[in-house]
Amino acid sequence: MTFQVVGFGALNLDKLYQVNKIAREDGESFIKSVSESCGGSAANTIIGLSRLEMKTVMIGKVASDREGELLLDNLSNENVQTTGIIKAEDGRSGTVMGFVDEAGERALYVDPGVNDLITLDEIDLNLVYNTEFLHLTSFVGNSIKAQEELLEKLPTKVKISLDPGRLYAEKGINSLVNILKRTDILLINRAELKLLTNNKYKTIEEEIKSLENYNIAIIVVKLGEDGCYATDGDKSYSLKAFPVKCRDTTGAGDAFNSGFLYGHIKGLNLEKSCIIGNYVASCCVGGWGATNSLPYKNNLDEFLKTI
Ligand SMILES: Nc1ncnc2c1ncn2[C@@H]1O[C@H](COP(=O)(O)OP(=O)(O)OP(=O)(O)O)[C@@H](O)[C@H]1O
Ligand SMILES: [Mg+2]
After folding, report:
1. Under 8 Å CB-to-CB from 214, ≥6 apart: which residues?
2. The model's pTM
3. Rounded to whole angstroms, how far apart are CA atoms 221 and 187?
4. What is the mean pLDDT of each run of 10 residues along the chain (307 residues)?
5. Which of 96, 127, 137, 178 lies at a CB distance of 3.0 to 4.6 Å from 42, suitable for a disulfide?
6. Pocket of ligand 1 from Cβ distances under 6 Å
7. Yes or no: domain 5-21+29-290 corresponds to CATH 3.20.190.10
């Protein structure tokens, strides 16, 4: 089977604990309620693309535990192929534990678990040889090596999109050379672009110019409620976000990526692809959670009639 987009990034089960107060050193607090949701930046984006009826598959790793089952079931329920997901016999699936107090203050603990134990020989290369896009997002630890090694094996016709997130942006430009030089579309937020370019520049334009050696065809900078800025080196656009009552920004950037990649793969121009990115992200922030309110193809088709 040929896929349009293959996602490759960490898979996490997010466990959100509502607590009376966040425990400090030597302190003790109690948990009032807990809710769970499936997460991971690449997985969120791939789910968004699947809802828009793109053929998708995920590469990642889960353990043989309850969390791993939930992550796999969630992807299957969203029509994402899971044949690229490696199942470890030992270890723990990735989890993110979030503790939120009454004032909304949060503390997050990431347990990468088996996410950090991916090696190239475990990856089914047949899934990636014929895809249009490979979409990469971050890992906490060593699986970045498997991503770099995979890129070396890929034919040039496979295009690469990268959302480095804070984790990879923080590594700084020198640690990401191998990935950036193969990247066709960089999807990044403003704070991450600053981190990636080592806080050396003042404007977005200067930051983007400093990346010119990497020959990245398209750079899209996500600007939260201000929308996005995108350039292909020739034309540049600043596009406002859609006015929507914002409930929860979890996964907004991932949702934007789904819409943008959809537009790009369908052959739409840079401006239209950004508009679709902003639209899909606005659906995301208008609801709760990273994927619950992502639009389906018929929703997008209705929207496209209005622009
Ligand atoms: N308040 C808002 N109203 C409408 N749209 C929004 C709002 N906040 C974010 N968005 C949309 O979401 C997109 C992505 O948001 P943002 O720039 O915060 O990305 P991000 O920081 O990568 O997000 P994430 O935290 O999910 O990684 C924006 O480009 C915009 O289209
Ligand atoms: Mg992001």
Report:
1. 177, 180, 181, 183
2. 0.97
3. 6
4. 95 96 95 97 98 98 98 98 98 96 91 98 96 98 97 97 97 96 98 96 97 98 98 98 94 98 98 98 96 98 96
5. 137
6. 189, 222-225, 227-228, 241-242, 244, 246, 249, 251-254, 256, 278, 281-282, 285
7. no
